Predict the 3D structure of the following.
Amino acid sequence: MKKYLVCSDIHGRDSYLETALSKNQDIDCVVIAGDLEIDTYDIEDIVRRFSSPKTALIMVKGNCDSYMTTTSTLPSTRTFSLGSKHKALLTHGHLYQARLDVMSYSAMENECDVVIFGHIHKQVDTFEFGIRFLNPGALRNRSYMILTVDDNDEISVEFKG
């Protein structure tokens, strides 16, 4: 089983990230879908202080990250495996106007069956166009999600905040 803490739209609220991590110390990976507005080195430090040294960190930039040197160098999209059967596209969503139909094209091009996005500050778990779309909401509003992939590659989501 793998457990992911997924958040987006931190908008500089580093203490909210610390709180979420302190409540969920048994995670395998932290996934951040943009609009950090915190230096990436500070994000890495927070993850290291509040979770295991083996905890992975996957981030993309959002529309509010272009003015900071370290966040502006993050990619706009990334793909990664979720278990052995699923592949996720991670994006902030602003480049697609956060439209599920538009994001689905990029997901299909990258052979992804899950899209994790932010931007709209609203929690979403929906299945459209053969793809599962997940949005953790805005961490600046204390919203995030715990995504779990069990040993049978079943994905479950628990919204927090």
Summary: The helical segments are 14-23, 40-50, 69-72, 100-109. The longest strand covers residues 2-7. The chain has one domain: 2-160.
